[in-house]
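PROTEIN DATA CARD
Card holder: Anti-sigma F factor
Chain length: 148
Origin: Filibacter tadaridae
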Amino acid sequence: MKNEMTLSFVAIEENEALARMAMTCFITPLDPTIEEISEFKTIVSEAVTNAIIHGYECDGKSQVTLHAVIDDNKVSMTISDEGAGIFDIEQAMEPMFTTRPFMERSGMGFTIMESFSDRLSVESVIGRGTVVKFEKTFSPVTETSRMR
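Structure generated from the sequence above:
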């Protein structure tokens, strides 16, 4: 099975839930386990939150765009913004690094995304935005996986 979708929305914190739910509905035909759904929603949530908070500083007018492709049991997804960009991607991906400690940000977003995905990459240009790409392969549906 192959399917594809694109979703764009205003960069406000309330739309993080929209992104999570829309993407969860999109992967439903893969019959994911609860654990797979939870991991996938977490990746989407972290990437979208980064775009809203760090990319746009919650400006409430810019756009975050999600693009996803299902091919067999693998989902490839891109979350992009045209915001501030990341000065040092390597540093940003270090556990516990945050540029927003006053907002009680833990600095674990990229670490979490990396641990829940099969592949994660980040591209960014200062003043032009950031693109987060990830892939996640879902388990083939079996009676055992349905019981998890």
